[in-house]
Amino acid sequence: MEQEAWQILIVEDDQRLAELTREYLESNGLRVDIESDGAKAAARILKEQPDLVVLDLMLPGEDGLSICRKVRSRYDRPILMLTARTDDMDEVLGLEMGADDYVCKPVRPRVLLARIRALLRRREGSEAPAESQRRLEFGQLVIDSALREAWLREQSIELTSAEFDLLWLLAANAGRILSREEIFTALRGIEYDGQDRSIDVRISRIRPKIGDDPMHPRLIKTVRSKGYLFVREALEGLA
């Protein structure tokens, strides 16, 4: 899909900010619509299925977290959340509700555009792996990068776009410790600031979905001061 065809829906009640953002994104080849009413946003997202949603956290009618939770099971494209708060708990909650990324206000247009493009490129598979690595199998766990789906014991696993990207990255590097810096750079295209918790949140969400024990993980291990390790042998031993 060409960039000119990418359709963005901005859910934002600050009309001035929304219009300025639309103008900037459209000047960079994207098509943009705006929804200012949180109460209408979920239905519109599910009906229109835009390529990406930019979703403000604080909205009249219904907040961004509630909207994200409501649409996530029926909308598998990227959701980028905007938050004006400095407390990182909002960012963590957004990720737990299924958001793929977040940008803090005040929004820097170039940063927002870069994040949007990174999410869209991953979604469209512009950096697809070699044919021999499009499907990975570890016992009862199967991950298919072409279909962007995963199965455990032949049952489909519900993953957000960002969770799938992280699972694929770890699985494709099975047996090798990946540092947070490596993961962050590979998935978001920017340097790790040492404070971002999004990787940790997603790991905690992925573990139970692939049959791992969140309290005593064996499949995706945390290696102190180093990063995360995808353990092939543990997965192949799943009953």
Please give a structural write-up:
- There is one protein chain.
- With 239 residues, the chain is α/β, with parallel strands linked by helices.
- The protein has 9 helices and 11 strands.
- The protein has helices spanning 15-27, 38-48, 64-71, 88-96, 109-124, 161-172, 180-188, 198-209, 232-236; strands spanning 7-11, 31-35, 52-56, 79-83, 101-104, 135-138, 141-144, 149-152, 155-156, 220-223, 227-230.
- The strands form 3 sheets. It has a 5-stranded parallel β-sheet, sandwiched between helices. It has a 4-stranded antiparallel β-sheet with strand order 6-7-8-9. It has a two-stranded antiparallel sheet with strand order 10-11.
- The longest helix is centred in the middle third of the chain and has 16 residues, at 109-124.
- It is globular.
- It starts with 6 loop residues before the first strand and ends with a helix.
Q: Please provide the ordered H/E string of secondary-structure elements.
A: EHEHEHEHEHEEEEHHHEEH
Number of helical regions: 9
The strand count comes to 11
Whole-number average pLDDT?
84
**Helix amount:** 25-40%
Distance between the termini: 40 Å
Taking Cα atoms only, what radius of gyration do you get, to the nearest Å? 18 Å
Counting helices, strands and paired strands, the structural category is: alpha/beta
Categorize the overall geometry: globular
Widest sheet: strand ordering: 2-1-3-4-5
Assess the beta-strand content as a share of residues.
15-25%
Give the biggest beta sheet: 5 strands, parallel
Poorly predicted sequence stretches spanning 5 or more consecutive residues: 126-132
